Amino acid sequence: MPDRAWLRDLPRAPALCRAATRAALGHLGKSVPKGTIDIVLAGDAFVRALNRRHRGKDKPTNVLSFPGLERAMPRLPAGTPILLGDVVLARGTVLREAAAGGKKPSHHLSHLVVHGVLHLFGHDHGGDAEARRMERLERKSLASLGIPDPYADRASV
Asked: What is the model's pTM?
């Protein structure tokens, strides 16, 4: 369920999401099937319900990714639209995290969209090596948008 308050708080959110999605897809380093990725700018309550239902965690989270079922189908008729997946973002959580981290909300939103899109294509951060690979792709994608490295402050800790 979209949260219209996104447009009040970050009027450029839809355009930022499109640009971040294109950046992530452009840095995957493999052929990406033509298709659609739905970005849902939602509220915390909606994301909390999804997180509880799909991950067993009864709390909001910043971003959730749901790969499309159509990707698993080996043969679709030519011209059939493919849903590559959904990326759902929680407005309150994203804005609170940006403020707490001293980041521009637009940069944090873009980072989370890139992060969510990478999850759609099998990237994860469960182990150290996986996390490093995923973060490297995030950095490249964000740099192409002129957004600073979101992990830079971690190196100085």
From this structure: 0.90
